[in-house]
Amino acid sequence: MTAAYVTEPGAAPARAAVRSEDGTSPRERDTERRTVTAPDLITVHDLKMHFPVTEGALVPRVVAHVKAVDGISFTIRKGETLGLVGESGCGKTTTGRCILRLELATAGEILFDGNNLIELDRKSMNALRQKIQVIFQDPYSSLNPRMKIGEIIAEPMQVHRTEPDRAARAARVTELLRLCGLDPKFADRYPHEMSGGQRQRVGIARALSVRPEFIICDEAISALDVSIQAQIINLLEDLRDEFNLTYLFIAHDLSVVRHLCHRVAVMYLGKIVELAECDELYNNPMHPYTQALLAAVPVPDPEVERRRAHQIVKGEVPSPMNPPSGCVFHPRCRLAVEDCARAVPEFRELRLGHWVACSVI
Amino acid sequence: MTKLLEIESLQTHFFTSAGVVRAVDGISYDVDEGETIAIVGESGCGKSVSALSVLRLVADPPGRVVGGSIRFKGRDLLQLSEEEIRDVRGKDIAMVFQEPMTSLNPVLTIGRQLTETLQQHLHMSREQADARAIELLGLVGIAEPARRLKQYPHHFSGGMRQRVMIAMALCCNPKLIIADEPTTALDVTIQAQILELMKDLTRRFGVALIVITHNLGIVARYADRVNVMYAGKIIESGTAQHIYHDPQHPYTLALLRSVPRMDRPRQARLDPVQGQPPDLTRLDGGCAFRPRCGFAVSRCASLPPLDGVGAGHLAACWETETVAGSLQRAS
Amino acid sequence: KAAPKKGGVMTFVVPDEPPSWDGHRETTFALIHPFAPFYSLLIKVNPENPSSPTDFVCDLCTEMPKPADGGKTYTFKLRQGVKFHDGTPLTAHDVVASFKKIISPPKGVTSARVAYFVMVDSVSAPDNHTVVFKLKYPSGAFIPALATPYNFIYSKAKLDADIRWYEKNVMGSGPFKFVAREAGAFVKGERNKDFYVKDRPYLDGFEAIFSSKQALRVQAIRGDRAAIEFRGFPPKSRDDLVKALGKDITVQESPWNCVLLFTPNSKKKPFDDVRVRRALTLAVDRWGGSKHLSQIAIVKPVGGVSYPDHPLAPKKAELEQIAGFWPDINKSRAEAKRLLKEAGQENLKFTLINRAIDQPYTIVGTWLIDQWRQIGVTVDQKMDPTGPFYAKLRSSDFDVTMDFNCQSVINPLLDIGKFLSADKGNESYGGYTDRTLDKMFDDMNRTGDEAEQKKLMLAFEKRVLDEQAHSFVTLWWNRIIPHRSYVKGWKVSPSHYLNQDLANVWLDK
Amino acid sequence: MYQYTLKRMLLMIPTLLGAGILVFILMRLIPGDICVLRMAGGSGYVDPKAIANCHAELGLDRSPVMQFLDFIWGFARFDFGNSMWTGRPIVEEISLRFELSLQIAIMATLTAILLAIPLGTISAVKQNTWIDYLVRGFSIAGIAMPSFWLGILIILGLLITTKSVFGTPWMPPIKYVPIWVDPLYNLSMTIFPALATGYRYSAVATRMTRSALLEVLREDYVRTARAKGLVQQVIIRRHALKNALLPVVTIIGIEFAFLMGGLVVTEQVFNLNGLGKLFVASVSNHDYAMTQALVMLVVAIFIFTNFVVDIVYAWLDPRIRYK
Amino acid sequence: MTVAADVRTEIELPDRSETANWWSRVRQFVRRNPLGAAGAIVIIVMFIMAALADFIAPYNPVANAFDRLHQPPSLENWFGTDQFGRDVFSRIVYGARTALLVGFVSSFIGASIGLVLGVGSAYFGGRTDLIFQRILDVFMAFPLIIMALAVISIFGTGAQNVIIAITIPFIPRCARVVRSSALAIREMPYIDAARANGFSHSRIILRHMVPNVMAPFLIMITAFVGQAILLEASLSYLGLGVQEPTPAWGLMLQGGAEEYAESAPWIAIFPGIAISLAVFGFSLFGDAVRDELDPKLRSQ
Ligand SMILES: Nc1ncnc2c1ncn2[C@@H]1O[C@H](COP(=O)(O)OP(=O)(O)OP(=O)(O)O)[C@@H](O)[C@H]1O
Ligand SMILES: Nc1ncnc2c1ncn2[C@@H]1O[C@H](COP(=O)(O)OP(=O)(O)OP(=O)(O)O)[C@@H](O)[C@H]1O
Ligand SMILES: [Mg+2]
Ligand SMILES: [Mg+2]
Fold it and tell me: What is the value of ipTM here, to two decimals?
């Protein structure tokens, strides 16, 4: 690094992270070390996704924009899991879709392996798609009901020619099903013959089929039953370790994010309001929104609950079509001062690797 | 103190082409006045159906209450005529449903939907009903209630709709409110608002509350007593304290262990409940959790009764000792 | 016979609505039925004897003229005191102006019957009550052409002001005055009190209601929503009406100056082979067909190329000599099969183009197909609406087509022009050229001698239908008019175009 | 609302233009010639000069592009020109027929609504009982019966029964008289076709009501209403029916538009001098001008009806209210 | 503490619930949907008539017999004879062929073209969809019978052209329905998954979207068959349908219905019943298909 040392907003800390006080498992330390030394895999810089709202059926005219994602930046290192949390409609999914280029971002850049995904032509993008996979929230609608499980898993291999011949594909399907904890005989079943948890395993197997480097898990577990969620979380963890996968883990269950992620970004109304190492964020939340979010999560222990202070944030998330001026959180913020309504807070690195967008603290 | 609601061996089955779904298969519990009872359990275990059965709202066909009794203030709701049960619905017992987005009629104003209950049960005039509706909306924390009355559900956000649903439930000063996953569809911050509101209102008006949920955290915060359901049966019942600190049924235990917890240090690995939820059409006579249970023994092939394992603490398991033992060892 | 009663409004149904109201330019009976009562003609068929093909009487003239100048000049004296409905007097100049419009229309004006009057050299009015026609050559076709019911006499003043005025207006001198018309619905007329025939018309008025579905027209008569329909009903409807209404229904029938033909395309294989064409006609049992089809369709008389009751038409014995009219159908069919075999066409298959009109086109077509089936020929029928049907006829886009000839005044000398060579007659669609035939036709028209004409006609007939087998007559039509018995004074004629001024009609109510 | 209306009007233009192009091309693809058709009464022969003359008179000798531009330009000025067949102004030709068609369409639609909504509701509420089967059978029978067949049966039935009852056969009038001139006469003519088509079209609407209501009855808010202890009738009337009517309104709207332009067969059966009959006549007469005008009219009615349906929709469903 | 078994231990597959055999499936269908079953019977009878017409029909359906004109039903002629003396029963049996041919071919072709257009339009969206929508508007607004009339006038009559005339109006109707369900499908995550994997447009359309709009497609087809039979009858009534002497129900109604409605009603009654029954059958069956395929209706 030379004199022009300017960290990207939201970038991973350059040196070893502040350790949490409590004991961490050997495995966790291991991954942490890897994170520190690993190169950046994906860098999102000032990403904006504004959906035009049109009127007029004949000659559509743009009357407004839904600012689903409004200038966010972060970096994910190889082997790292970044959690993305926030309330419904804050733009988590849209961020993921922009990276997958299911939506063409309005502005900003997404660097993956040195390529800016936003500017890539269709052909080179398709080649890259093999490395970026996705697991969706709804296990019921993310599998084509008219295809057999085997076909679903084999199709990406066929298209990307990672496994050009049929027999090899079949063998790999068996292997993948096993890997995801399913009986290989499932290969010639249809999705509707399976339970939600099983389907989610199929979704994971499909994502793994072309040996990706980066997987976007968009609420991959929130549609599942509590008793099944843990199975899938463990599976995701195991696979990450085994194949050195990088995850963008989108969720709104804060306890799951805490369990699974190395770093966490908190989004609110199209912006990242806080980004930090996982333990740092949970132990020392700085942004008032993050604090409220954490306070709102009930803990399954009556004793603890009785002792906890219940700080409840007022109001609801405004529409991204006309977000509040200044700091988007100020109408609901308990710390808000007059200036918050005017000045857009800077996304600052308040501590090493701990970025916050709040001008009050 | 008299029991407000006594449910005894309630059985509700669905007769479908795939076979008989024993959605609720002999559950019994009581609710005292002003008490908050939680029912937890995984998806499809019969929580909603048991709640709907209380007001005889299960779609018939295919569903039917095939056995048991539900006594509300001593009257068996299952024996009432259609008119009599209508009088109970909304007046004595009110319900709040899971999906605030679809549970309100999109083509009627909020006001209309609120006042029609008042007019039906309390025979209020239009003006009286409107006044009461405004009062109720204010109560559940909706600003400018008079103006809001004339609006339609689509003008309201999810959280506000759920507030309206609560206002609607409170309309006729019911003795009991059954809330079926009232916050599942909402964001955490909104969820907290709604729960706090419900807790507050039920306390203030002394309304008993049955909350159905699968979020163990919510239960811990609000419930006096907890019933854990599995495959159409209550498998454990007790105070929140019992359930969280002294679970006697392997399923309860497994459920508690499987969720990552914010109040504890990060675990290396989660401890999931193995296997898949049971198919309610193909239950054999034995304990339904047996195939997924780490404590299963041969005796589990016969149905364990829901027996007391402590004061006000019931569990349906042959191996409660072993379970308790394992708990001791673990801690 | 009861004395005619005055008064009453007669309602009748008309299957179609005419395009314009100008008789000179239109060719459909739909114009005649509602509009003929408004106009006078110079001469017309005898309303007392309409079934005769040769009985013409004066309408506006006072006396049928004798041809002078070797048959080249006809001088008509007109009635005095005839008035148009607007009160202006009708003079010879009006008659001349009308016929000039028919015979030699000015540019931009359409007349449908220019060809009828090719023999006319000039028409003039030496004085107010005399009209003189000068012909280029004597012709037996002139008087019948003159009696054509479309030759309405218009007012010269109106024509001078706007020669196309009559397309959208009515102003004649006929027995009825125009009252109202509603598009697609009806035309109403009322009695012309100043009509030149004393005490006529009997009716106070009439109402012509347009109704395109035949079944509905039949029911209308049954339910007394209408008294009569002048085109004709099929036999079954007649029987139903009689059965339902008994003596309230009177039926008048007449052979009809219309005939269906079928014409092979001589330019197309294998119909360029006379043997194939002959086989097709030999297969058709006309005598049997007459008996059978007359029960279900508006056809009956067996005849050759000219109207069967006309003096020029062949006698039955003569007819039986012609192929397709042989009394022994089995022999005829055997011959047909032999011919086909000889021509190598035993498994002949073709499509018959037909006009999508039930009575009698579809029925005759279907019957023909069954007739041909019996000599092993497979035929597909393709029905076309009138527009496309004409288009196909005229462009020779067919194997075999149904064809028709339907004229108003019976005038065989004109009517058989239908069979001339393609370049000569313009009305034949077989695509053949036969100069012998053309010469026979010319000779027939030029000779005044009736016996000679008859001889030539027979030869013509033989050549068209048998020897050269160009085009074939199926059956002549049969006009069946069942009407309310209270309709009196109307006599059926061999053409639905004729005798429609309604002057003599009265209601016995 | 005003702006919305304006927008809808603009939206009509491409549809109308498309329909104009379509009908223009279709008509000219039909083999045959109006002039031949007019003048070939006796034997199919027409003097070529007469044809040329007639073409010039009707403007058919110009290039198709010119003809098209003329048609569209005339249409844009609401100048529909003259019928090629009768030579009279098209507006005059259409007006009486329009009146009749409109009356029948309104009466038939009313019949359909009056049949469909109660029957559909009963059928849904009593799902899978014999009443349900009966209603469904009755309504499907309406669709299954060819309409002309039904018409023939009606007329014949009237003739035969009146004959046996009164001694003289009676049939409906075959001539249209506007309702304000002679209501009784008018109704005695229009009632039968209106019933016949109304029954037929009620079938679709009945089925739609039934299935929409069944769907709505499964909705959460109906369960909410039941949980509030409302009476069944109130639930159906207030909560279910209003929602269920949304798709039914669409169906009825489409059918109304269809009735305005598509009653071809029924008009033949009852000799109704309506738009359908005129349509058939003008197509078979090759009356380009008339057919074009009629298509534009019917398409405009179709669009207008859709517009009305949208307004009714907005009135029924507060979620779609236009500013 | 119970040892957490490795999550990856296979979830074993229970035996496939013994796939209900064919017969019990049929019985279930009949129980669930008695009206649909009645419709199915009608359709089966029609198919049998069409397939085995040569054996079932006692007479040649086109041979005229002028000695037996409009005979009432009797032992020789079960349904009587028509105006050409042809056996009505035989003509009805053979007529099933025409009805099924016209019905199935037109609805299949119409629905298939509509399927491709609808799915394509929904998938590509944007301007393509906008233009396509406007074109659909035109065709939807265009009076159906006039379109048929024009098509027949252009191409001429005959079964094949009747099929064309009936097919054309079906296309936009099917396209519209398919498009709206394809729009919903396009938003499904599995389509996103396919797009995220860079599958080609044709693959996404053909493998992922088309199979999933099969339900509305099949529903449309069954609904269309009945309509096509009716439309053919209407065209026949206007003289534009299948032509004599082809045995076709609509044609039989046209030729005989009005003229002989009173004196020889059997000429018109039997084909009328045949048409009504067929349409009735297909409508009932179509409803049943919809109930079976539409999960919303099924879970009642
Ligand atoms: N295609 C689109 N067109 C217009 N607006 C869109 C589109 N997709 C998303 N949005 C809007 O963008 C905002 C962000 O949506 P997004 O799905 O990214 O939120 P999310 O954080 O994933 O929410 P959830 O937790 O509910 O999944 C929402 O307000 C949404 O309505
Ligand atoms: N209408 C129905 N027909 C058939 N089976 C039904 C019906 N409704 C519910 N069931 C079955 O009854 C069982 C219990 O359903 P219930 O809705 O009570 O579950 P739940 O515990 O509320 O689940 P969730 O947490 O998903 O709401 C389920 O297995 C379900 O499949
Ligand atoms: Mg999302
Ligand atoms: Mg539930």
Answer: 0.81
